[in-house]
Each structure stands twice: as C-alpha cells, then as structure tokens.
Amino acid sequence: MKKISKSKIVSTYALALYEGAEEKKSVEKVFADVEKLLSAVKEDASIVKYLANPIWDVEAKKAAIKEVASKVHLCKETMNCMDVIADNKRFAEFQQILEGFVRLYYLKNNIVEVEVQTVKKLAASQDKKLKENLEKVLNKKVMVKYDLKPDLLGGLIIKFGSSMIDNSIKGKLNRLELIMKGGR
C-alpha cells in the first residue's frame, strides 16, 4: 500500500472542508467555527490527544463532538467534516487541518498573514496605522498576529511570507555591532 504524506492528507481535508463550505455558501460560518476550534485546541492540547486515541470508539468520539458542537454552535458543514475526520481516524492531524483551512481561506480572500513582534501591545491607533500601511505596501488585506518579545528593547519586527523587516532596537544594535567589527 502506498503511504501518503501527512501534508498531503492535511491539505486534502482542508480543501474538502473549504469546498464543502463554498458549495453550501457557508464559508464565513465555517471560518468562524475553525477559529473557535483552533483557539480551543491551542488552549488545551489534550483535546486532540483524546480524540486521536485509537482505543476510544469512533461512535463515542462522534457523540462527544456532537455534544460539544451543540454547546459552541458549530455549523452543519463543520460537523460533517469532523465526522469524516473521526471516521477516517485523522484526529492526530486535526490542528494542522484547521490551520490548512485558514491558510486556504486567506489565499482565496486575498489576505496575507503578518507576524509582528513587539515589546508591548500596540495602542489601538498604532495598530490601525500599522495595518493600513501594511495593506498599502502589500496591496492585500492583512491579518496581523502579534507576538510580545520584551528582548527587542523597542521597535518592531514584521514578518510576512519570506520577507522580514527588522526595525527593532535590538536589530539596530546588532547591525551597528557588525559594522563596528568591520563586517557588513
């Protein structure tokens, strides 16, 4: 039997979820569900461990999922996908499938994910101005994910795609040190 790579499995399920949602005209609802589920999984990694446990019966997993889904109001398309994941015993890849769906959603909606490292949380006006400038530069809508890094001393590091803008004090000091040592 031919072995299929994990990334191929993840992308197949993410694409199936997206196309199913698109067909039912519920992409936004599914996206909201995926964000809820990702948040829950990141908050408590043991959720995936329990669902991926091969000893636990598939029907019991489905019952537990339906119970949780009714409490957090997941839409039918999200539930269908979770049933398929349960039937095919793919909960070990659950978080990656959800993340794959988010990447696909961003790609289809011309959104770029930008990671911003900063010393402290930006004020609302700074956040708004940063997003506006990034959208002008990238010519796309941006989804900013902040990461607090006190060791930067000040300034920002902005990462998008394979590009990085380092305007942090730490970065400037490192570059100055290189120049003083005779490097470039």
Rg computed from alpha carbons, rounded to a whole number of angstroms:
21 Å
Q: Taking strands numbered 1, 2, ... along the chain, how are they ordered across the largest sheet?
A: 2-1-3-4
Helices and strands: which structural class?
alpha+beta
Distance between the termini: 53 Å
Give the biggest sheet. Answer: 4 strands, mixed
What is the CATH domain class of the largest domain?
A: Mainly Alpha
Q: How much is the average pLDDT?
A: 90
What is this structure's SSE topology?
Blueprint: H1 6-23, H2 27-43, H3 46-52, H4 58-72, H5 76-87, H6 94-108, E1 111-118, H7 124-138, E2 141-148, E3 156-160, E4 163-166, H8 169-181
Parallel strand pairs: 1-2
Antiparallel strand pairs: 1-3, 3-4
Helix pairs in contact: 1-2, 1-5, 1-6, 2-6, 4-5
Note the main attributes of this structure.
Peroxidase, domain 1; 184 residues; alpha+beta; single chain
Can you give a write-up of this model?
This protein is an alpha+beta fold and 184 residues long. It has 2 domains: 6-107, Orthogonal Bundle (Peroxidase, domain 1); 111-181, no CATH class. It is 61% helix and 14% strand. The chain contains 8 helices and 4 strands, in the order H-H-H-H-H-H-E-H-E-E-E-H. The protein has helices at residues 6-23, 27-43, 46-52, 58-72, 76-87, 94-108, 124-138, 169-181; strands at 111-118, 141-148, 156-160, 163-166. It has a 4-stranded mixed beta sheet with strand order 2-1-3-4. Strand 1 (111-118), helix 7 and strand 2 (141-148) form a beta-alpha-beta unit. Helix 1 (6-23) packs across helix 2, helix 1 (6-23) crosses helix 6 (94-108) and helix 2 (27-43) packs across helix 6. The model has no long low-confidence stretch (mean pLDDT 90).
